[in-house]
Amino acid sequence: MTLAVTWDQRFGDGKGSMNFHEFQARAEEIFEDIPADFKQGLEGIEVVRKTTTHPDLPEVYTLGECLSEFYPSEFGGPGEVMSRVVLYYGSFLALSRTHEDWDWEEELFETVTHEVRHHLEHLASEDALEEMDFAEDQNFARREGEGFEPLFFKAGKALGGGVYEVAGDVFIERPLGRGAEPGSPVEARWGDRSFTVRVPEDPGDIHFMRLADLEGDAEGEVYVVLVRRRGVGEWVLSLLGGRKVRVLESEAEVV
């Protein structure tokens, strides 16, 4: 089941500010306009004045949540899923004060439909959207210089050929053989473009190489991610021995 609501259902451009009551009324309109087939098991939408931040990343505001309860069937296995969408007006207000191009209508529409998609994922027993949220959280942590899961991008949107997209950033995964020497070429491909980069002096175990030359072709930044090939036994021994995976980042030129 795919949730698709047209632009015409967004009720205008909505770039102006909204007070709490306007925000609440608009949220209810958007929710009501979603086809009934997509709201099976949804008890409704709730708007609160609260300002909420991410539990692990205090710089990131939480705009909304899909709160679900699962009721197993009497025969075992998945049963009924009941959810409600909660929006945090205070978080919207806080972000509007720090973003000059903040569009209340756009952000409200995206948040409502995003949380309804969470409910649909629960109904379908899928976790793709939760994986995308994980990938976006880890990418934000990486950008902020905090600790992150090195292969987080694999939970993003797969574009094919070892290429992934997370919040506008593109990650092109390339394996690095054990004998690869610094300066040796690595062939990569993204869409219709083929290009070459050079292995850095210290590739580490995982190396994010930012390609400024290609950033005009993406919403965000473009990286070739070199991942050193290691046998399963080596990875297990490293983990048991407490050895940390060396993750590095640098800028690189397209050859």
Overview of the molecule:
The chain has 255 residues and is of the alpha/beta class. It has a six-stranded mixed β-sheet. α1 crosses α3. The protein is elongated, with a radius of gyration of 22 Å. The two termini are 44 Å apart.
Beta-strand residue percentage: 25-35%
Largest sheet: 6 strands, mixed
Low-confidence stretches are: 1-14, 73-79
The 3D shape can be described as elongated
End-to-end Cα distance, whole Å, is: 44 Å
Derived from helix and strand composition plus strand pairing, the structural class reads alpha/beta
Query: How many helices does DSSP assign?
Result: 5
Radius of gyration: 22 Å
What is the string of helix and strand elements? HEEEHHHEEEEEEEHE
Helical residue percent?
25-40%
List how many beta strands DSSP finds: 11
Present the secondary structure layout.
Elements: H1 20-33, E1 42-48, E2 64-71, E3 80-88, H2 89-96, H3 104-123, H4 128-143, E4 157-160, E5 163-166, E6 169-176, E7 185-190, E8 193-198, E9 206-211, E10 222-228, H5 232-240, E11 247-252
Parallel strand pairs: 1-3, 6-10, 9-11
Antiparallel strand pairs: 2-3, 4-5, 5-6, 7-8, 9-10
Helix pairs in contact: 1-3
